[in-house]
Design a protein that fits this description.
Helix content is about 70%, strand content about 0%. The chain is an all-alpha fold. Helix 5 packs parallel to helix 7, helix 6 runs parallel beside helix 17 and helix 16 runs antiparallel to helix 17.
Length: about 350
């Protein structure tokens, strides 16, 4: 029932969520296969959108079908990967807002759960194929190729803390931002078509950054604190849990945070890479609760994680509050919201 509710909320909304105008225009305007595959989006997403459009002109039907796949597939994979399914579902809702706006990266993230399954089963070929499929829905999914070797790395708590601290210091120093600007200058001097393409990419990656009334360093530290709040708990408990899978999820969680600390101040575009590894955080939380034998400690941990995830959800909603609150769906007669 909870899965059905999430699908309905996601599939029947109207003028609710980010990038509404772009995706709405894309689906409702184009008609032919060539128009859909115009280079704007990845091949599999474009082809998928074209197939649905060839069957119906209704954007709501497209959203509903997409929601059924994205949310339904996540539910199936969570059940396969973790017995504490309801914990996974609650964490998924808090971290991903229940896929309220299912865009192409959400499809890639759902497929990423399948790649986690193949990592655990040590099926390398199937893992690579799943990553390739995800990448053809959203090219940022290519980062998942690093997940397999990282999952099985042996990292002590001390090494993890050193890596986190080092990436934090580098991120605060803005050294990578300066390095990318210098690199952009070198390609400008080189000239030629390839240099122009690389320069354009670097320009787009270094243009989007924090836009806030507080300084970028303060915003960065607040985000870092929010991301690291559960790290001491999982590092402390790993000695009792003693699970290769749990250690693998910790590795992916740490890798995600290192990417964020190193590159989020360079551009918020790079934050997209971390979205795939939030899946590991969900599964990691479920394992912590499932493995705790002491009922009192389990209850305390459950309360702590519930508060933590509720804060994550509130922060996510408030980031684009004007696009999520109030929630509008297809049966609303008057929708005053201006989307962007």
């Amino acid at each position: 029932m909870s899965i059905l509710l999430l699908i309905v909320l996601s599939g029947l909304r109207w003028k609710t969520g980010t990038d509404w105008d772009m995706y709405f225009y894309y689906f409702t305007t184009y008609k032919s296969f060539d128009e859909f595959n115009n280079g704007q989006f990845e091949f599999l997403y474009s082809s998928y959108a074209y197939i649905i459009k060839s069957l119906t002109n209704s954007y709501s039907v497209f959203l509903l079908v997409t929601s059924i796949f994205i949310i339904g597939f996540k539910a199936i994979m969570f059940r396969k990967l973790e017995p504490y399914f309801l914990v996974c579902l609650f964490a998924f809702y808090a971290i991903y807002m229940g896929d309220l706006f299912p865009v192409r990266q959400n499809i890639a993230i759902s497929i990423a759960l399948l790649s986690f399954y193949f990592i655990i089963k040590r099926q390398k070929l199937a893992f690579v194929i799943s990553v390739i499929v995800a990448t053809f829905f959203h090219n940022s999914a290519i980062i998942l190729l690093a997940a397999y070797p990282i999952f099985y790395m042996k990292m002590s708590n001390k090494l993890i803390l050193i890596l986190i601290a080092t990436s934090l210091l580098i991120g605060l120093s803005d050294v990578l931002t300066s390095a990318l600007r210098e690199l952009k200058g070198l390609f400008n001097l080189g000239g030629g078509f390839l240099s122009e393409r690389i320069t354009d990419k670097l320009q787009s990656y270094t243009t989007d950054s924090y836009s806030s009334n507080i300084s970028s360093n303060v915003a960065f530290l607040i985000s870092a604190a929010r991301r690291l709040i559960i790290l001491p708990i999982v590092l402390y408990l790993r000695k009792d849990i003693k699970s290769t899978v749990f250690n693998g999820y910790i590795n992916l969680f740490v890798f995600s945070n290192i990417i964020f600390f190193l590159l989020s101040k360079v551009s918020i575009v790079f934050v997209r890479f971390t979205s795939y590894f939030a899946l590991a955080e969900i599964l990691m939380i479920a394992i912590v609760l499932r493995s705790q034998k002491d009922k009192r400690i389990k209850v305390l941990l459950l309360i702590f994680f519930a508060i933590y995830l509720a804060i994550r959800l509130i922060v996510s909603i408030n980031t684009y509050r004007d696009l999520f609150d109030p929630y509008y769906w297809i049966f609303d007669k008057y929708i005053p919201r201006i989307t962007y």
